[in-house]
Amino acid sequence: MLIIDEKLLALDEQIDQIVAEFINLPEVTTYRLAKIEFNKDHELQDKLRLLNAQADYILYRPELKQLQKEIITNDKVYALKLAENDVQVVLSELTERIARSISDHIYIDENLPLKGGSRHDRHHRK
User: Fold this and answer.
1) Mean pLDDT over the full length of the chain
2) Do the Cβ atoms of 87 and 27 come closer than 8 Å?
3) Which of 51, 55, 73, 125 has the largest CB neighbor count within 10 A?
4) Would you say 44 and 76 are in contact if contact means Cβ atoms under 8 Å apart?
5) What contacts 48, CB < 8 A, 6 or more positions away?
């Protein structure tokens, strides 16, 4: 049974404060705006629906491969991916700080696509 005491309540309040501050970070604001622009583009959304519906046939239909390339190189998709990565970096840094406050021996996997991290990275670090 969990015993709720003053320390647990204080920790819960600190978590709420961190979340409130996190939501107001410029990276999160940029992400939210990029997500809105991404979702507002009805032509892009139609293309994504078509590609997702036909994903099993992409190897056999060159026009689907071309559509995939068109989507990947779309400015709104690119802006959203950059914004997602920026938010992931901030989350990673926060997680790292929390882990280091406990122990320097806690490994944090930073599988950030634009940072070059990978799930195998920890095996290659010295």
Assistant:
1) 86
2) yes
3) 51
4) yes
5) 71
- Two tokens at 35? 């997500």
Instruction: Indicate the pTM of the whole model.
Output: 0.74
SS3 of 9-64? HHHHHHHHHHHHHHHCCHHHHHHHHHHHHHHHCHHHHHHHHHHHHCHHHCCCCHHH
Could you give the count of Cα atoms lying within 13 Å of 105 in the half-sphere of its Cβ? Answer: 0
Q: Which residues contact 85 (CB under 8 A, 6 or more apart)?
A: 112, 113, 114, 115
Give the pLDDT band of residue 58 (cuts 50, 70, 90).
very high
Say what the pLDDT of residue 111 is: 67
Q: Yes or no: say if 51 and 68 are a contact pair by the CB < 8 Å rule.
A: yes
Q: What's the count of helices (H) and strands (E) in the chain, helices before strands? A: 6, 0
User: What is the token pair recorded at 107?
Assistant: 């490994």
User: Of the ranges 44-48, 97-101, 108-112, which one carries the lowest mean pLDDT score?
Assistant: 108-112
